[in-house]
Amino acid sequence: MRALVIDDSRAMRRIVGQTLRGLGFEPVEAEHGQHALDLLAGDEPVPALACIDWNMPVMDGLTFVTRVRQNPQWRDMTLMMVTTESEHGQIVRALAAGAHEYLIKPFTTDAIRDKLELLGLVPVGESA
């Protein structure tokens, strides 16, 4: 199963990507929302999951979520915000825009696994 990891921090993309790899995903990295949209518009299959940072140059995560939800080809992709933005209003905005889950940085491997279990993307008890 493919997973899109969208974050302007290379280190964070690697951390999230390694965690997802340990859970059976094939991570694909994007530096910002527009880069991710360009990847989605390519010939590769649509990933099952996108882990999205909020604050990025070129296109932020909230705009990415909104654009994905506007495209019928991508509507089935599970979207999870993975960000330092922790204010209740921002969480509500992201979920209202179409994100399925919201994970606040810093996070643990167990926290990602737990969110993916809730979303039905990994079996309960799967180790990372």
Automatic annotation (TrEMBL):
Every copy of the Response regulatory domain together lies at 2-120
Q: Does the keyword Phosphoprotein apply?
A: yes
Give the UniProt keywords, A-Z: Phosphoprotein
Q: Which residues carry this modification: 4-aspartylphosphate?
A: D53
Output the InterPro entries linked to this UniProt entry: Bact_response_regulator (IPR050595), CheY-like_superfamily (IPR011006), Sig_transdc_resp-reg_receiver (IPR001789)
Q: Does the keyword Lipid metabolism apply?
A: no
Gene3D superfamilies named in the record: 3.40.50.2300
Q: What is this protein called?
A: Two-component system chemotaxis response regulator CheY
Q: Which organism is it from?
A: Cellulomonas iranensis
